[in-house]
Amino acid sequence: AVKTGGTNYDLAGGGVLQLDPRVAAGAPNLLTNGRFEDEDPAPWHLTTNGKEPTPENTAQRVQLGRRGDWCVQLQADDKEAMKKRVFKWISPMPEGVVAPGTYCLSYEVRVVGRRLVPGDKSGSFNSYLHMNRNGKSGGNLGQRKAMLVTTGERWLRRDFVIDVPEHVTPSMISLQLHRATGTVLLDNVSLIRCQE
Length: 196
Known about the structure:
Layout: E1 45-48, E2 59-62, E3 71-76, E4 86-92, E5 101-118, E6 124-133, E7 136-141, E8 156-164, E9 169-178, E10 180-193
């Protein structure tokens, strides 16, 4: 049941939606080229956790986006290799991202087919903000809660609030196939600073 102050079908003025933390209307996307409309996806690029060559077409720009426009496709087919491999679609962190601060990482994702096939218990698609501490790798923020293996064969919007602590340097955003085979489409990636 919905309480609206009027009849059940009259919802005007019936509620207020408040996001916590708040993102200011018109706040700029701190990432560049997150819609992948430009033929050159830079500064986004593919990297991996291994030294082996990356198969051709692991990451490619395809016209299968959320609205029929361009997006990025990540795919992996080698089940044995993906028990250990990670294919990362990354963007270096822009200068406007500083610590401490609270940010909202958003993107749209679609798993093609029924589901990804995990190569181990952590096998999934996921995302994170990577940070450095004292010049060395300082870990990933937001990775565990971002894990998924299916989107029900539809586009799914994901929004993650990430608190960046003091005394670290945010270094990159990663959207990745982590020890799993299958195909994932990515579109409309943004990173927005939340209001304090």
